[in-house]
Design a protein that fits this description.
The protein is mainly alpha-helical. It is 80% helix and 0% strand. The longest helix is centred in the N-terminal third of the chain and has 25 residues, at 3-27. The chain starts with a helix and ends with a helix.
Length: 128
Amino acid sequence: MTAGACCSLVAVALLWGGTNPLLRRGGTSAKPTKSSNTITGFLSEVTHLATNWKFLFPFLINQCGSLLYFLTLADTDLSLAVPVANSLTFVFTALAGLALGEPPPSKGTAAGMLLITCGIILCIVDKM
């Protein structure tokens, strides 16, 4: 695994994890529709989210992370790319939530984040 691919996977995790709390906040502004038709209600909610910048902006950044992930997979071992990106996403989601004023993670969660980070470092070092 090259250093560039490693940095790309960390960037993917940062883009995904950093936007998760923002997506959660932006998505809670969706108002339940009282439509009798399921399709009309669904389209109404999608329209609301597509015009809500508090949801749309983080969603577009999140999708940039997905594009970077797709491009990185061409040069990276899949058995390493998936765990690195997905597990670090969890860590960055917790850190971004903390930065946005969400309650801090419990001691067990913090210990798990530390173990995830150590495990990912070991995996990367093993593949280099």
